[in-house]
Amino acid sequence: MKIKNIVKLSVLCFAFGNLSAQNPWPKATNTAQPWTRWWWMGSAVDEKGLDKQLTTLSKAGFGGVEIVPIYGAKGFENKYINYLSPEWMKMLQFTTNKAKSLKMGVDMAVGTGWPIGGPQVDENDAATKMIVQTYSIQPNEKFSEKIVLKDEKQKNLKTIKLDIVTAYNEKNEAVVLTDKVTQDGTLNWKPTSGKWTIYAVFVGKTLQKVKRAAPGGDGYTLDHFSPDATKDYLKTFDKAFGNSNYGIRSFFNDSYEVYGADWTADFKEEFKKRRGYDLSQYIKYLVSDEEIELAGRIKSDYRETMSELILHNFTENFTNWAHSKKSKNTNQAHGSPGNLLDLYAAVDIPESETFGSTKFDIQVLRRNLEDINTKEVPDINMLKFASSAANITGKPLISNESFTWLTEHFKTSWSQVKPEAEQIFLSGINHIFYHGTTYTPADVQFPGWLFYASTNFVPENSLWPNIKGLNSYIQRTQSVLQSGKSDNEILMYWPVYDQWASPKGKDMAFKIHNIEKWLHPTVFYENLDKLGKSGYSLDMISDEMIGEAKFENQNIQVSKNGGSYKVLIIPQLNYFSESTLKNILNLAQNGASVIFQNEPKDVQGFFEFEKRRKELQSLWAKIPFQQDGNLRSATFGKGRIILSSDVEKALQFLKIEREKLTDTGLKFIRRKFDGGKYYYIVNHTSKEINQNIPLNYSGKQVALMNPENGEFGIAETQNNSVKVQLKSGESLIIKASETPDNSIPKWKYVEKTDAPIVLNQPWQLTFKEGGPELPKSKTLDKLQPWTNFTEDTSTQSFSGTGVYATSFKLNKKADDFILKFDKLYESAKVIINGQDAGMVWSLPFEINVGKYLKKGKNTIQIEVSNLMANRIRYMDQNKIQWRNYHEINFVNIDYKPFDASNWKVQPSGLDGEIQLIPVFYSNKL
Questions:
Q1: Which residues are in the Beta-mannosidase-like galactose-binding domain (predicted)?
Q2: What is the CA radius of gyration of the chain?
Q3: N or C: which end of the chain has fewer CB within 10 A?
Q4: Helical spans, DSSP H, in 590-707
Q5: Taking a C-beta distance cutoff of 8 angstroms, is the pair 672, 687 a contact?
Q6: Residue 262 confidence (pLDDT) above 80
C-alpha cells in the first residue's frame, strides 16, 4: 500500500508509573465489578447455555448476576421450566456453582416479573383495597336497600367483607352503624331527623396479577400490609430451598408497583392501635377530596399507618427471612406508600433505579431527541433516598437498577452509559446493576432473546468487544466507593408529614416516575439541589432515625457503623412531630448543631392534636433565640440552634465549610478511610479544567488515580489545593492520605503539546465480525465511516467490527503521544505494532499510545465496533422474524410496537481526522 504524506518522526516512549510502586487502588472484589440483571425468558435454560453465558460475562468483567425469570419466547414452550420446580432449582444450583468457580456472585428475585406475587398468593393474601359505596337516607325513612357490594368483579370472591358503615348528617355529625348491618346487608337503623349520607367500606381485592410473569410465577400480587400474607408467600421458597440458600448472596424484591392497594383486612384495628382513635367515625374525610384541615389530618394518620404496616409487616419480615437463609436481601422501596428512608434502611442492600436519559453538557455527547424518553430524566436527589438510608445506618452497599430505557433499543453506546453511571455514583450509590442481560440459547440467531425495556448488555450486542472498557471503569470506581465510609457532613430532615397532610387522594406512593409532583415542587428539594451544587454533601434523615440519633465525638450519629454529621437541617415545613422536636432538643442539649429554616407551624395528624400542638409550641419556646445579624441563634445546652430562611448563611455561621471545587463546575463525592479521604471528581461541563482546585481535606500526601485506565501518581499541591487536568467528560479519583507513600511516582501533568500529526494517508478497511454479512474490503484515500459507501448495500446493514489499518513513520521525540479521534462510531480497540494499546469507548475519544510507538515505521489497526441499529433496521425492512415473545412481545421507547424499518442508517466507523499529538510532561521520572 502506498502511503502519502509520510511523517518522519522519532519517538521517546514513556511508560507510566513504576512496576515497583505501591498500588493505591483498593482491592477489587466481585461487588466492585458491575452486576447485571439476568432475565431467564420462560426459564428455558440449560446447563450448557448457563455455563457459556456466565463464562462470557465473567471474561467481560461482570462480578455477578441477578436472576429474574420472565415470560418466554414463542416456539420454545417445550423448554420452559416452572419457577421453583425441582428442575428449576437444579438449574439454580448449577448457576451458583458455576458462578462460584468464576468468582462471581448470584442474586435472585423472590418472584417472577413484578411486583412480588405468584400462584402461592391466594385470595386472602392478595393485594387489598377499600371499596366505598354511598347511600342517601331521609329522616324517618326505612332504608330498604341492602348494603352489599355492587362491584361485579368482586362478587365471586370469598374474602369480601363489610368493614365500616358510617352515616353523616348535614351538620357532619357521624353515627357508626357497622354493627347495625345484618349478614344479608339489611340496615337496622332509622334517623329521626335530617338528611343522612351513609358511607359503606368493603374490604375488596385489587385483582392485580404479576406483570411479565414467568411460567410457574403467574398469580395475584401480594398484600404488603399483611404480616400473614408475607409469611405465607415466603413459605413457598422455604419449601423449594429447604435448609440451603443454594448459594444466593441476596434475595431481591423489585419496586413497589401495586396499583390501588390502599387497605388490608385488619387495617381498621391497626389504625386504632397505632393512631389512638377509631377511623370509622372519620371515614368520610378519608375517602373524599374535600380540601379541609380535618381531611388532611385524617389522611396523614392513614398514610403514616400504611407506612408502618409495609415497613413492619413486609420489609422487616422479608429481611428476617433472608437472614434465616444466611443470605442478604435487596429491596427497591420507591413506589411504596411509606417513608422511603425507613423502608430502604430496613434491608441489607437498598436499591434505587434510574429510568431515561440525562442531558449533560459534555462536548459532542450524543443525545438525539428521537431516541430518548423526554418525559422522565434521572434525578440525583431521588437516588439519594437509598444512599442516605444506607449511609446513616451503615449499610456498605447501595445498589441501582441502571440504564432502563436510556435510549431507544440498539442505539445506546458505552460513551452514553458512562456519564449516567457517574451521576449514579455521585448520588452515593456504589453497586451498579445493569438493566440488563437476557439469557439466550446457543441455537437462537442474532440478536438473541431480548427484554423489551433494557439497554442490551448482551454478548450479541455488536458493541460487546469493548464492554470491558466500561466494566473496568466501573470496577475501579466502585472499588473506591465501596471503601471506608461515606463522608457527608450534613443531615437534612425529610418533611414527610407535609406530603402526607395533603387532603387529596388516599394512599400516596412515592414513585420515581412522578417526582415532578411530590418531590420537585418542595422547598426540601430546592435545598437539596442548591446545597449540592454549592459543594455541600448531605444525607436525608427520617423522624425515626432522628429518634435513634446520638451526639458523640462532636458529631451526630444514628448507627455505630453509619456516617457522622456536623449539622442537622430542618427545612421549611408546616407539620412537625412534637416528639421529633423533643429528640432534636436532646441532641442540641448534648452538643449538636441544628438549623431550622422556619418555625414549625403545627403537629401532624388528628389524635389530641391541640394538646400536641401546645406541647410543640412549648418546646419551641424553650429555645432562647437571639438576633444575630441576618439570622437568629441560640445556645441550647452544649449545642447551637439556628433559625434562618437562608440555609447556606446558617451553615456559614456555624463554620460548616462547603467544597469550593464545585465553583469550577466539577461534581464530587467523598469517602473517608482510616488515615485519609477519597474524592471522586467528575467533569460534566463542556470545558476543560486545568487548574488547582481547593479541597477541604488534603492530608500529607495527595495521589491522583484515573479510573478509566488505572494510572496513578502523586499530585502537585499548594495551600490545600490540588492541580487537576480534566477534559470534558473525564473523571478522576483523589486520594488524600495522612501517611505518605514514597514508592508512588509523580503524576504526569501535560505541560505542553506540539502540533498534531494528522494520519491523513490512505487506510485499508476490512471487516472482522458481524452481520448480516461482512462487507468487502476497501482502500480509503481518507478516513470515513463505512456507512458512507451507499453503493455497497451491505455496509448500510452491517453491525459488527470493521478494522481500519495503516502504517506511518515517526521521527520526533516526545514524552508521550495521544491518539485522538475526531468522530468514533462507537468504540474501538487500538493495536499498534502488533500490541494491544487499549480501548477507546468514552469521551473524549483519545488514548495515550506513546509506549507502543517506535522510531521509524509503525503500524496501526483500529478495530471499530458500531451499534446494533443498522442490522436491526435491515431485519425489519426484510421482514426477518426476530421478536416473537409472549406477554408484551417487544415495544419501542414510547411503548408502541417496535419497527426499525424506517430508521435512518446510523453512521458507523471512523470519520474526520485521527491525530497523534506529541505530549510533554512537567513531572518526569
A1: 803-884
A2: 31
A3: N
A4: 609-621, 647-653
A5: no
A6: yes
Residue 878 has what DSSP assignment? T
CA distance 859 to 830: 11
> pLDDT confidence of 6, banded at 50, 70, 90?
very low
* β-pair type (399-404, 349-355): parallel
User: How many CA atoms are closer than 13 Å to the CA of 430, on its beta-carbon side?
Assistant: 30
**CB neighbours of residue 566 within 10 Å:** 18
Eight-class DSSP state of 314: I
DSSP label of 476: H
Joined grid coordinates for residue 718: 499548594
CA atoms in the 13 A half-sphere facing the CB of 123: 10
DSSP 410: T
Instruction: Return the higher-pLDDT residue of 459 and 192.
Output: 459
- Write down the pLDDT at residue 323: 98
What span, in angstroms and rounded, lies between the C-alpha atoms of 734 and 715? 9
Nearest residue to 144 via CA among 195, 193, 184:
184
C-beta neighbour count of 902 within 10 angstroms: 8
Among residues 434, 470, 512, 313, the alpha carbon closest in space to that of 68 is found at: 434
Structure-block grid coordinates of residue 228 = 400473614
- How far apart CA 658 and CA 654 sit, in angstroms, is 12
Please state the φ and ψ torsions of residue 647, each to the nearest 5 degrees.
-65, -40
d(CA 417, CA 276): 51
What percent of the chain has pLDDT above 70?
Answer: 97
pLDDT on residue 11? 37
Handedness of CA 258, 261, 265, 267 (dihedral sign): positive
- State the Cα–Cα distance between residues 345 and 547, nearest whole angstrom: 14
Model confidence band, residue 924 (pLDDT cutoffs 50, 70, 90): low
Mean pLDDT of the chain: 95
Judge whether 871 and 797 are in contact, CB under 8 Å. yes
Amino acid at 815: D
Rounded to whole angstroms, the Cα distance separating 579 from 561 reads 25
d(CA 74, CA 664): 54
Q: Using the predicted structure, report yes or no on whether residue 1 has a pLDDT greater than 50.
A: no
Amino acid at 492: M
Looking up cell 436525608 gives 540
Q: Do 763 and 712 contact (CB within 8 A), yes or no?
A: no
- Indicate the angle between helix axes 380-393 and 523-534, nearest 10 degrees: 80
Of 195, 350, 410, 472, the C-alpha closest to 908 is: 410
DSSP secondary structure, 555-598, as one string = EEESSTTS-EESEEEE-S-SB--HHHHHHHHHHHHTT-EEEESS
CB 68 within 8 A of CB 255: no
Q: Is residue 250 within 8 Å of residue 330, measured between CB atoms?
A: yes
Q: Is 655 exposed, middle or buried (0-12, 13-18, 19+ CB in 10 A)?
A: exposed
* C-alpha cell at position 639: 449545642
Q: Is the pLDDT of residue 13 over 60?
A: no
Sequence-separated (6 or more) residues with CB below 8 Å from residue 841: 413, 414, 415, 466, 469, 470, 826, 827, 828
Give CA–CA dist 147/157, Å, rounded. 17
CA-to-CA distance for 29 and 33, rounded, in angstroms?
7
Residue 213's identity, in one-letter code, is A
Matching residue, cell 436491526: 872
E-assigned strand segments in 139-181 = 161-169, 174-176
Yes or no: say if 260 and 204 are a contact pair by the CB < 8 Å rule: no
Residue 425, phi then psi, degrees to nearest 5: -60, -40
**pLDDT above 90 for 376:** no
Q: Is the pLDDT of residue 290 over 70?
A: yes
- Which segments of 778-889 does DSSP mark as H helices, in order? 793-797, 869-877
**What DSSP string runs through 112-151?**
SSBSSB-TT--GGGB-EEEEEEEEEE-TT----S------
Angle between helices 47-59 and 86-101 (to 10 degrees): 30
